[in-house]
Write a structure and sequence with these properties.
The chain is mainly alpha-helical.
Length: 71
């Protein structure tokens, strides 16, 4: 049963990430999933480090709101 719950939870989280706007999703995945540094995220996206930080923070905020109460 626990394995099924883990798979369901993973599906809910994946769906929430997939629903992020592309620019937020890309920054979030690069930093929080692929574990790139903010500097590397900024380089990959050709944006400043502060913009990369803002995108990741905004993605986390959107996910937190979306997932609140669902998990």
């Amino acid at each position: 049963v626990d394995v099924m719950l883990q798979h369901d939870l993973a599906d809910v989280i994946r769906t929430a990430i997939d629903q992020l706007p592309e620019r937020l999703r890309t920054a979030f995945v690069l930093h929080d999933v692929e574990e790139l540094s903010m500097s590397d995220v900024a380089d990959v996206l050709d944006i400043g480090v502060s913009a990369a930080k803002m995108r990741v923070a905004r993605a986390r905020e959107v996910l937190r709101i979306d997932l609140n109460g669902r998990i």
